[in-house]
Specification:
The complex is a heterodimer of chains A (177) and B (146).
Chain A (H helix, E strand, L loop, with lengths): L1 H10 L3 H21 L3 H25 L12 H19 L10 H17 L5 H9 L1 H30 L11
Chain B lengths: L4 H23 L8 H18 L2 H7 L2 H24 L15 H32 L11
The chains are: A mainly alpha (177), B mainly alpha (146).
Chain lengths: 177, 146
C-alpha cells in the first residue's frame, strides 16, 4: 500500500490530491512503525507527517497554485539517477543483518546495555524517553535547537519582510486581518 | 469557513480534548509513548485547527504571535539552562542526577520532565509560528477554486 500511495503521488498532477496522499503515506508508514514496535516514532510520524505537514502543505498550496506544471525535459536522466541510487541502497542493505536477527550488533550490546542500565540509573519505565532525554541529552538539545532554527528561518523568509513593509503604515496589529 | 456549522461545533468540542491529550503526552511521556516533540505538535495542532476553522485572527487573539515568538526561544533556553544548573551544582552538563544528589533517580526524573517541557514549548512555538507565517499571507486561490 505504501508503494501504491507513492505511485499515486507521482502520477497525479493535482497538488491537492498530492498533499492528501502524502498524508495517507505518512499514516501508513506510522502503521509500519507500530508493526516494528517503534511506538514513539509512529506517534511522531502520525502527528507530524500526517497532521501538521499536510496542513502546512495545504497552506502553501493556497499561496501558490493548484496544478503541477507539465515538465519540459525528458524523464530519462532523473529516472536513471533514481534507479541507480535505489540500486546502491538495496546493495547496501545486503550487508545488513536480517530484520530481528538476534546476533545483530545493535541487539548484542547496545540495546541490552540500555535496557539493563536505565531502570536503576534513570528509573523511567519508557526506555525511549530515558535514552532520548538523559543518555543522549546533548543530541536532543541539538534537535531542539534545529527545530528552533527552522522556525526562525521560516519566520525570516516569510513574515519578517512583510512586517518591515507594514511598519510604515499601521504597525503589527494589522497582521492577519 | 463561516458557514460550516458542524465543523465549528465539533472543533469547539475537540480543541479542549486535544490540548488535554497534548498535556498527557507531555507529562506522561516517561511512562507511555510520547514526549516533548509529540506533545508540542499535538498542542500546536489544537491552535492550528482553531485557526483553520474559525479564523486566523481569532486564533491569534487566543495565542498572540508575540507570545509564540517568545515561546520559540523559551523552550531552548529551558533546556540549556537545565544543563547550566546541573553544572552549577558541580555535575556534568545535563547530568540530572545533580538535582537530588542523594537519590539520583529522582533527579533524572525531574530533569527529563523539565527538558521535555523545553522541547514541547519550542516545538509548539515553531509549529504555530510556521502556520501563522503561512496563513497570514493573502491567498492567491479563492475558496471556491478548491
Amino acid at each position: 500500500m505504501l508503494v501504491m500511495t507513492a505511485l499515486a503521488i507521482v502520477r497525479t498532477r493535482r497538488l491537492f490530491a498530492t498533499a492528501m496522499l502524502s498524508g495517507v503515506f505518512s499514516l501508513l508508514s506510522a502503521q509500519l512503525f507500530v508493526v516494528l514496535d517503534a511506538v514513539d516514532v509512529a506517534f511522531t510520524e502520525a502527528a507530524v507527517g500526517a497532521g501538521i505537514s499536510t496542513v502546512l502543505m495545504l497552506g502553501t498550496l493556497a499561496l501558490t497554485g493548484r496544478v503541477e506544471k507539465r515538465s519540459t525535459h525528458s524523464p530519462f536522466l532523473p529516472l536513471l539517477v533514481v534507479g541507480m541510487t535505489g540500486a546502491v541502497l538495496i546493495y547496501g542493505t545486503l550487508d545488513m543483518p536480517n530484520f530481528g536477527a538476534a546476533d545483530a550488533p545493535a541487539q548484542t550490546h547496545v540495546s541490552p546495555d540500555y535496557l539493563e542500565r536505565s531502570p536503576h540509573e534513570i528509573g523511567v519505565p519508557n526506555v525511549v524517553t530515558a535514552v532520548l532525554a538523559s543518555y543522549r541529552g546533548f543530541d536532543t538539545l541539538g534537535e531542539t535547537a534545529v527545530v528552533f532554527t527552522a522556525g526562525i528561518g521560516v519566520l525570516f523568509l516569510i513574515s519578517a519582510l512583510r512586517r518591515r513593509r507594514e511598519t510604515g503604515d499601521s504597525g503589527n496589529d494589522r497582521k492577519g486581518a | 469557513m463561516r458557514h460550516h456549522l458542524i465543523l465549528r461545533v465539533v472543533t469547539k468540542l475537540l480543541v479542549g480534548a486535544i490540548i488535554l491529550f497534548a498535556l498527557y503526552v507531555q507529562f506522561h511521556g516517561d511512562f507511555s509513548p510520547g514526549g516533548g516533540f509529540q506533545a508540542g505538535v499535538i498542542m500546536a495542532v489544537a491552535f492550528i485547527i482553531y485557526g483553520v476553522v474559525f479564523s486566523l485572527r481569532q486564533a491569534q487573539r487566543v495565542f498572540p504571535p508575540w507570545l509564540v515568538h517568545k515561546l520559540l526561544a523559551l523552550g531552548v533556553l529551558i533546556y540549556a539552562f537545565t544543563g547550566l544548573v546541573s553544572m552549577a551544582l558541580g555535575y556534568e552538563y545535563l547530568n540530572y542526577g545533580a538535582f537530588t544528589p542523594h537519590h539520583p533517580e529522582h533527579g533524572q526524573h525531574w530533569g527529563i520532565l523539565i527538558v521535555e517541557l523545553g522541547v514541547g514549548v519550542t516545538v509548539t512555538g515553531v509549529m504555530v509560528a510556521i502556520y501563522y507565517a503561512f496563513a497570514a499571507r493573502p491567498p492567491t486561490i479563492s475558496d471556491k477554486d478548491w
